[in-house]
Description:
Blueprint: E1 8-14, H1 24-32, E2 36-40, E3 51-57
Amino acid sequence: MGAKGVLNIAWVNVSNIPLDKIHDRNIAYVGSLVGVTLDIDKATVNRPESVRIKLGCRDAEDIPIKAEGVLG
């Protein structure tokens, strides 16, 4: 029998996504840099300052303050 992992859930704000790159696929990619993107708060997608995403992660306390990636 395989080990079962438990994901902690955390809502986090993601900032500094260029406005022309804000769409579901890129937002999900940004979340995947630190965990599993479970949901995107659609009410925040058009906010210029940040987008809110629901992450699944091993330990919410270990989510890094900063993560970098390249958006297509």
